[in-house]
Amino acid sequence: MKSRLFLYVSLGVDLSIAISKFIAAAFTGSSAMVSEGIHSVIDAVSQLMLIWGVKTSRRAADADRPFGYGKELYFWSFIVSLVIFILGGCISFYEGWLRFNKPQFDGSPTWNYVVLAIAFAFNLVSMATALKAFNMQRGSITFWKAVVGTKDPSTIIVLLGDFGDLIGLFIAFLGVFLGRLLHNPYYDGVASMLIGVVLIIISAFLVRESKSLLMGEPTGRKILKKVIAMVQADESVVRVKKHFSTYMSPEDVLLQLNTVFKQGLTTKQITDAIERITKNIQTEFPRMKQVFIEPVAN
Asked: Which CATH number fits domain 221-295: 3.40.50.9100, 3.40.50.300, 2.30.130.10, 3.30.70.1350?
């Protein structure tokens, strides 16, 4: 099982930053800082849900879940994407809208600048940790193709969440800076609304990816071709008639092969062939932990 250190790093960063942002907002009255504080709280809750999803997905299969609990991770990733990010985006947008009805400046903006700088630095650390984990997963695949095709939603949720944080921090800085420079508090409200829009856009993308994984995605075509070629190379096999596969978790693929065996084989010979083929597949492709080979007529 891959390391999930990046989740704990991100959780610690988000909690620390959230506290500092709300302190700054209390001293300055900045709605953009309130939105950023909400954003960090949302991120922290997201990490907790993902950590819980990872933990529960590792439970062994039992009578209630004979195929295992792997999709717990996909379920909680979908909840994080659908509810948490959209909720945070809507609250941030609403906070900015309220500022238009009550434009004001409170206290010195220095608190905001200091907290934004600290938050930016910490978010870079969190993003670097998530990016390292993501790069190890994607290997030589291009970045965007890996983001769209990843089977581990926890990594891209943290990665894109941190990316959204950095964009939000920059927007918050512009809102505070331009508002003070031009003596126009409405910039602060606009910044808060823009932060909400960024969250909602990220959420829409993550909902799409998480839903697809939750519904069930097959393994890659190249891998399936290699598996089928391996099976059909066995001396007892005529051909693979049909194949079905789905990711139960990032490290657990369920594979079913409807296979035509040569005529004249005894039941024991077919059973031995199935055991041999299954072992070969799982040795070559360790993620295929659940392999079912069903003999069928030609």
From this structure: 3.30.70.1350
**Distance between first and last Cα of the chain:** 39
Provide the whole-model pTM: 0.79
Residue ranges in the chain modelled with pLDDT below 70: 1-3, 31-32, 103-108
121-169 pLDDT per residue, tens:
888 888 888 888 888 878 778 888 888 888 888 888 888 888 888 898 8
What are 249's two structure tokens?
Answer: 């978790």
- Name the nearest CA neighbour of 89 among 30, 13, 38, 126: 38
- List the one residue out of 221, 223, 230 whose CA is nearest residue 276: 230
| Among 75, 51, 10, CA closest to 214 | 75
Q: What is the CA radius of gyration of the chain?
A: 25
Going by the DSSP 8-state scheme, the letter that residue 61 receives in this structure is: P
Q: What is the pLDDT at residue 61?
A: 87
Q: Say how far apart CA 76 and CA 249 lie, in whole Å.
A: 12
**Tokens read off for 11:** 């959780």
Report the DSSP beta bridge partners of residue 239.
260
